[in-house]
Design goal:
Organism: Flavobacterium suzhouense
Largest sheet: 5 strands, antiparallel
Low-confidence stretches: 1-5
Membrane topology: Multi-pass membrane protein
Radius of gyration: 27 Å
Number of domains: 2
Mean pLDDT: 85
Structural class: alpha+beta
Strand content: 5-15%
InterPro entries: BP-dependent_transpt_permease, MetI-like, MetI-like_sf, OppC_N
Keywords: Cell membrane, Membrane, Transmembrane, Transmembrane helix, Transport
Number of helices: 15
CATH class of the largest domain: Mainly Alpha
Pfam family, one: BPD_transp_1
Number of strands: 5
Length: about 375
Amino acid sequence: MDKTNHSLTGLALQKFKKNFWGVLSFVFIVILLFISIFAYVLAPDKTVNANWGDLSIHSKSPGFTVKMLTIPSKEDEGSVSDYFIGKQVASEKIPILKYSVTKDSLTYYEYTDEPSFAVAKTIPLSVFGKDAKADYVGNEFVKEQKFILGTDSQGRDLLSRLIVGSRVSIAIGFVAVFISLVVGIFFGAIAGYYGGKVDAFVMWLVNIIWSIPTLLLVIAITLALGKGFWQVFVAVGLTMWVEVARVVRGQVMSLKQTQFVTAARALGYKNSRIIFNHILPNSMAPVIVISAANFASAILVESGLSFLGLGAQPPIPSWGGMIKDHYNYIILGKPYLAMAPGIAMLLLVLAFMMVGNALRDALDVKSE
């Protein structure tokens, strides 16, 4: 079929599909989005924020395996919400070296790196159920647990923390980009369309914000709003709208001189209708490209804030916070504790930049 019969959107989609790295990056982002939504389904640690840990197994290498004794909790009742927010009350888990079961009790030795120092403890079988039997307890409540990526400095499962921590990076991107689009498109549109004093005021505001280092401005807004999960999202979003505003302003200034805008004015349409129904829909291509880049920038800024202790606060896991907690392990022979979240962040940011480049090429009407 002749290309002239396709819409511009269809042509852009065809060009995007031909970009191997762009498509691969988009698939990676979709997979990571799926992982973040169903984090507690996929993570080995189902507790809220994947915060279960035991200092006896801290800083273990990837592939570490240990016997885990689970003592059930009467309040540990599963619900649908557990799959999205984690278990509020979880069964107690105890790493052990070995155990023995008698008719009415279970004796276990707590895990330690030096077996000769292991402490023996005895608990009644009744804690596992009223009519619990020795074989049943041994088979159901003592199992081997493998930590695929090892454990962190607090003895928490590193893989689970990575999976749950992806929620922060994905969420900061969406919220910050949404805020930057709303604010940036509004100010850019009115500045480009009305010009004059309105344009001068908006550009004065943009230049002031742009002259302040991004991280310093985010820190100032974060301190004003207070430390917290959503405060960081708002702070990052309020520092990223200026680039969107400049691009939208330029697009609107160019498009307001076109014939279809002149025709809309001749028909008596209101300025708001002309801006939002006619001009903005025709100026979204560069804004989409900027949004992909801003998504990556928001992730890096949030990680920097978490590293400084101003991002998502403990016990909420974030990749920047995990790097902060373990960067000193790089010289202590266990660099993977800091490298794992760093590599995850690198791949996500790279994916968004590749998607942005692919969108730029696909939406460029001059390219073939």
